[in-house]
UniProtKB/TrEMBL annotation:
InterPro entries: Beta-barrel_TonB, Beta-barrel_TonB_sf, Plug_dom, Plug_dom_sf, TonB-dep_rcpt-like
Family: Belongs to the TonB-dependent receptor family.
Domain TonB-dependent receptor plug residue range list: 59-167
Name of the protein: Putative receptor
Annotated ranges, domain TonB-dependent receptor-like beta-barrel: 229-625
One protein family per Pfam: TonB_dep_Rec_b-barrel
GO cellular component terms, A-Z: cell outer membrane
Position of the signal peptide: 1-33
Gene Ontology biological process terms in this record: siderophore transmembrane transport
CDD domains according to UniProt: ligand_gated_channel (cd01347)
Length: 659
């Protein structure tokens, strides 16, 4: 174990801030006339798909929508999907400080979030941590992402279960020009990243293929709670034992154009990794050789039709497979079919309708230690069939009303109807005000229904008679373009959930699952995007989330595990034809001192990209510039706080070459 003492002064933080400022100010200004507005994260004129299932201008969606572009991903300080999403105002990503650690997302303070790739669900039927449906670390690398659309707020009327907090839709890149790109980088702690992508198009067939490999020898963390690490002080840096990591992935998208209105697309994503899994900085397991391995293979075949019409349609079949080995073997599979079509009825009505069918099954759920293999359950499945209908009704030039309804029939609990109504008012050419009401639900996971474990006298039991979690979400917001350089978005929401599913524990650590809880959430978001000059841009964001839980009708109490009651995002950047340099700051305040060591933190990251030639560029990413000790996961109360500190300062230096 390597330890170094860290000064308690703020001198080092100020030094990094001055170095960063110098980079932003001193990079050369080149070719003003060629500069474009690529730095904007949110454009009101941008067309998005996820919020209404059909192409809609962002400002007219009547929803709280954020878009992350390919340019942002390529030029930002991001090493994985969680890094990208964490940089979006109002998004909470929970994780631990070592590579390969599970990452789950919260939107509007809720971890019941639907994650999709090109509009198809990739949720795991057995579930992830908490009420989340997917571990973000089981998803593809960043190289094949065209953009990410994030819809914050209930969306069950269009997407069914899981979309209580919102939807994340990862849209992949389609092959175009003949181009191959090689990407190689090295970094702190023996990090090596290898990337390859190739694309092209010929005779109506296009392809986009990527391959990636990531390696890291170990990780370091900064001590949060000295009581957990003998002989340490807060802020000391330690090497985390058993924190090596290796992962590799492959993605492929093939498109065949039939004619102007029809095409066929095949998608495939593969990812597998293996790494050490420190349970916590205080646990003896952190010194052991416990490993975690994940494998995922997803594919989809989509037929698109009516592509040139106002309401395009598609038919899709897909399958997802996941196998995780971490103190056991956990295999699951999802198979599905989706069909959507619609019509433009006159000048006023745009009707969308569709059918979804999905089967989720757990093939094996086995826990093992050095002595026993315990089969919790296996070969259990559920199916869900759904029909949805939506009408985008243009009442006048200023008013648009979008009612919708979805009916789901689940093989375990029967029918569930979720209506919605969205209203958008265009006050003028630069101002849109919206209101939305959505009924939402979350189906029990297969772990909730069938988990059955008896281990050294302790039992954990699921319940096949669970009801779905049900509730509603209200949202009001405004999109305002102040001028050509400045835009503002604001949103407030309120949600209530009944029959919330909780695992209840007794004093002997026996556990069983029940519909015992109620939840209330409310919050507010404000985003400001301002172009300072031809080359300089800035973004500022604030979010507030307040969550209360009521278990067993004992009364509502504030949730103390909330890692971002007040969230702050700041980004300042410089861009021209040669350089793109940006610094982003992420902060949270109001954390409970019963669950977290500190009530607040600020973390800064730096990304610098330099285009040497049209074919070659170099980049530098520095994470945690100020080398701060902070945490994103609540690991318990008392002396167990601070068990999962985030990584200390580290860097990545790389080169890209295209031909």
């Amino acid at each position: 174990m390597v330890k170094r003492k860290k000064s308690t002064s703020t001198g080092k933080t100020w030094l990094w801030a001055m170095v960063t400022s110098a980079l932003l100010v001193q990079v050369p200004g080149v070719s003003l006339a060629e500069e474009a507005d690529k730095q904007d994260q949110f454009s009101f004129d941008e067309v998005v798909i996820t919020a209404n299932r059909v192409p809609t201008t962002a400002a007219k969606t009547a929803a709280n929508v954020a878009v992350v572009s390919r340019e942002q991903i390529e030029k930002g300080p991001y090493s994985n999907l969680g890094d990208v999403l964490r940089d979006v105002n109002g998004v909470i990503v929970t994780t631990k400080g070592f590579a390969g650690a599970e990452q789950t997302i919260r939107l509007n303070g809720d971890d019941r979030v639907l994650v999709m790739i090109d509009g198809r669900k990739i949720s795991q039927p057995q579930g992830a941590s908490g009420r989340a449906s997917i571990n973000l670390n089981s998803i593809i690398s960043l190289d094949n992402i065209e953009r990410i659309e994030i819809v914050k707020g209930g969306a069950s009327a269009l997407y069914g279960s899981d979309a209580v907090g919102g939807v994340v839709n990862i849209i992949t890149r389609k092959g175009a020009e003949a181009k191959t790109t090689m990407d190689f980088s090295v970094g702190s702690w023996g990090t090596r990243n290898y990337g390859f992508s190739t694309q092209g198009s010929e005779n109506g067939v296009s392809w986009y293929i990527t391959a990636n490999k990531k390696e890291q020898d170990y990780a370091k963390y900064n001590v949060l709670n000295p009581a957990l690490t003998s002989g340490s002080s807060k802020g000391d840096s330690y090497r985390w034992p058993n924190s090596n990591y290796e992962g590799q992935g492959f993605t492929m998208r093939l498109d065949k154009t039939i004619d102007d209105n029809r095409s066929v697309t095949f998608n495939f994503e593969h990812w597998d990794d293996e790494g050490g899994q420190p349970y916590s900085v205080s646990s003896a397991y952190a010194l052991s050789s416990v490993k975690s391995a994940k494998l995922s293979n997803n594919w989809a075949l989509t037929y698109d039709f009516n592509k040139q019409k106002d309401v395009p349609g598609f038919a899709r079949i897909y399958a997802n497979y996941s196998n995780q080995d971490f103190s056991g073997t956990y295999k699951n599979r999802t198979q599905g079919f989706a069909y959507q079509t619609g019509w433009q009825l006159g000048d006023r009505h745009k009707v969308v309708t569709g059918l979804d069918w999905e089967k989720g099954e757990v093939l094996e759920n086995t826990y093992h230690d050095e002595y026993y293999d315990i089969v919790n359950y296996k070969n259990k499945s559920v199916t869900n069939t759904a029909f949805y209908l939506q009408d985008i009704f243009t009442v006048t030039d200023k008013w648009t009303v979008t009612p919708g309804v979805r009916y789901d029939h689940h093989s375990k609990f029967g029918g569930q109807t979720t209506p919605k109504v969205n209203v958008n008012y265009s006050a003028d050419s630069s101002t849109d005000i919206y209101f939305s009401y959505n009924r939402v639900f979350k189906a029990p996971t297969l772990d909730d229904l069938y988990y059955n474990m008896d281990y050294y006298g302790n039992t954990w039991k699921g319940d096949p008679n669970l009801k779905p979690e049900k509730g509603h979400v209200l949202s009001v917001g405004v999109n305002k373009k102040l001028n050509n350089n400045t835009s503002v978005t604001a949103n407030c929401f309120s949600s209530k959930l009944t029959d919330a599913i909780e695992w209840d524990y007794d004093d002997s650590y026996n556990a069983w699952v029940r519909n015992i809880a109620k939840q209330k959430k409310r919050g507010f978001e404000l985003d400001i995007h301002h172009k300072l000059s031809e080359h300089y841009y800035s973004e500022v964001g604030y979010s507030y989330v307040h969550t209360e839980n009521n278990e067993n009708n004992a009364g509502y109490v504030v949730e103390e595990n909330n890692s971002q009651p007040n969230g702050y995002r700041v980004k300042v950047g410089y861009t021209d034809t040669k350089w793109d340099v940006n610094v982003n700051g992420q902060s949270a305040t109001g954390l409970s001192r019963n669950r977290f060591i500190d009530s607040s933190y600020w973390v800064w990251n730096l990304a610098a990209n330099y285009k040497m030639t049209p074919a070659a560029s170099v980049y530098l990413n520095v994470y945690n510039l100020g080398d701060k000790a902070y945490e994103l996961t609540s690991s318990g109360s008392g002396n167990s706080r601070g068990n999962y500190p985030m990584a200390s300062r580290n860097f990545q230096l790389g080169i890209k070459y295209s031909f």
